[in-house]
Amino acid sequence: MPAHSDETVAAARRLYEEGVLSEAEIEQRTGMPRGTFRARATREGWVRPHAPTRAAAIRAADRVSLVARLFRSFERQIADLEKRFAAADGESDEKDARMLAVLAKTFETLNGLKAEEDRKKDVAVDLDTLRAELAKRLERLDPGGPEPGGGDRAAELG
User: Which residues does UniProt call coiled coil (predicted)?
Assistant: First the structure.
């Protein structure tokens, strides 16, 4: 059994304890057979985390990416609606009112997803600022606000 250099052993231990790569991938990267680094791990007390697994780490990264993509899509939809509203000289129709209702609900959902992701990362989210920004943007789209009598066209249509 050939002896492995200190650098190879250190690399195998680091990769093993990070828990990101599979044992086969560690073997491939270091050239140290699985049986050898498993034996060293047992003998020397290397600790391989059980969670998060590589698949869980990938899923978490995918989820963060998905939430970011959804926010970008939401921004594009708002921008498109603002352009249509500007081109119509402030006139809006039922379609725009329905779209506003849908976008408001979408924003609420995205805000919940973002807040959940931020809680996972222990990052504080200033929801009041986000809500205020949404309210400003929606006001620019429908400066008349709610209709008299407490009714709101978007809420009635949505």
Answer: 71-133
